[in-house]
Amino acid sequence: MEFIFYLAALLLISLAFAHSYLGERYILCRLFKRDNLPKLFGSDDFTKRTLRFAWHLTSVAWLGMSAIVAVMAQPELNKSLLGQIIALTFAAHFLVALLGSKGKHLSWMVFGAVSLLVVWGST
After folding, report:
1. What separation in angstroms does the CA of 87 have from each of 29, 33, 34, 62, 113?
2. 102: alpha, beta or left, given left = phi > 0 and alpha = psi -120 to 50?
3. Which domain holds residue 13?
4. Is the CB of residue 58 less than 8 Å from the CB of residue 19?
5. For residues 51 and 2, what is the distance between their CA atoms, to the nearest angstrom?
6. CB 23 within 8 A of CB 55
7. Can you name the residues that pair with 40 across neighbouring β-strands?
8. Which one, 5, 20, 36, 94, has least CB within 10 Å?
9. Which parts of the chain span the membrane according to its record (predicted)?
10. What burial class does residue 93 get, using C-beta atoms within 10 Å of its C-beta: 0-12 exposed, 13-18 middle, 19+ buried?
11. Chain CA centroid to CA 80, Å
């Protein structure tokens, strides 16, 4: 039965990497060549950065979910380990949002708070 969970986790990892790579190569780069993107904060830079980090956050979420699925293969469900995986996933969200938007998209604050709260609640 554990094999099924590990296979599902592997599929999620593969999907996450394919999503990020193919999205950058075939969707985002073509979208960003358009000259009619909304101009927020004086240019379309914020729009492009927001679209890019939001795209890749999906992949980060799938990587976190793959780790949770892999933990489900264990005979005993370890609540502390699940909390660490969730906290790490949202810490990655925090960094992607903060760096990807240069701090302008305020979701980084929520992701950081969620990460810290989950760490706190899991100890």
Report:
1. 31, 36, 37, 14, 10
2. left
3. 2-122
4. yes
5. 37
6. yes
7. 43
8. 36
9. 53-73, 80-99, 105-122
10. buried
11. 21
Q: Report how far residue 5's alpha carbon sits from residue 42's, in angstroms, rounded to the nearest whole number.
A: 47
* Token output for 79: 């609540």
State the residue for tokens 């000259």: 35
Distance of CA 92 to the CA centre of its chain: 7
Give the tens place of pLDDT for each residue, 82-92: 999 999 999 99
Torsion sign (Cα): 71, 75, 78, 79:
positive
DSSP collapsed to 3 states, 7-73: HHHHHHHHHHHHHHHHHHHHHHHHHCCCCCCCCECCECHHHHHHHHHHHHHHHHHHHHHHHHHHHCC
Dihedral sign, CA of 65, 70, 76, 81? negative
Q: Exposed, middle or buried, 36 (CB in 10 Å: 0-12/13-18/19+)?
A: exposed
Query: How many structural domains does the chain have?
Result: 1
pLDDT of 123 reads: 83
